[in-house]
UniProtKB/TrEMBL annotation:
Listed Gene3D superfamilies: Putative cyclase
Coiled coil feature spans: none
Origin superkingdom: Bacteria
Xref: InterPro entries: KFase/CYL (IPR007325), KFase_sf (IPR037175)
Organism: Paenibacillus glycanilyticus
Protein name, per record: Cyclase
Length: 174
């Protein structure tokens, strides 16, 4: 078994989507002052590697805390837009940019989630039909092609949450 961390580190001053809150990480308690260490985090819910709930782009749609945990993990596969067939019943991850013209092809497969370099228009359409999206992933190109893997990308359980940073992990069996 091989485990791949697909997450970017959360760090002070990291790049964010234009207009989103900047990331702030500060030491609030030190070993010297409190006998433990504690950091205060300030960031937007769509910082770094993150998952988007349908409510992110659709008023009244499902929020993170309303979605069952099964929507955030499962059998998955890397696909390329040029692949003649994409698998059904799996999460789909793209290592190349994917835009709106691929919506119908993705929607027909009804994957539980889709990830990669997705255009905003495609994300909006996928979220509109209840397909969870993952963005800000790194290292998808390290995963084997045409091989199923288990993906895990659990969000924080934010009440009314529209999105959340995740620790995205792929597990590939030998």
């Amino acid at each position: 078994m091989k485990i791949y961390d697909l997450s970017v580190p959360i760090d002070e001053g990291m790049p964010v989507y234009p207009g989103d809150p900047e990331v702030r990480v500060r030491v609030a308690h030190t070993y010297e002052s409190h006998s433990w260490e504690l950091r205060q985090l300030s960031m937007g819910s769509h910082t770094g590697t993150h998952v988007d709930a349908p409510s992110h782009m659709h008023h009244g749609a499902a929020t993170l805390d309303e979605l069952p945990l099964e929507r955030f993990f499962g059998k998955s596969r890397i696909v390329r837009v040029s692949d003649p067939v994409w698998p059904e019943g799996r999460g789909l991850f793209f290592i190349e940019s994917v835009d709106e013209p691929y919506f119908n092809r993705i929607a027909a497969l009804r994957p539980p989630f889709v990830g990669g370099d997705l255009s905003e228009a495609l994300e909006r359409e996928l979220l509109g039909i209840g397909i969870v999206t993952y963005t800000g992933l790194q290292g998808l190109d390290r995963l084997p092609a045409y091989t199923d893997f288990m993906f895990y990308g659990f969000p924080l359980r934010i009440a009314g949450g529209d999105g959340s940073p995740v620790r995205a992990v792929a597990v590939v069996e030998d």
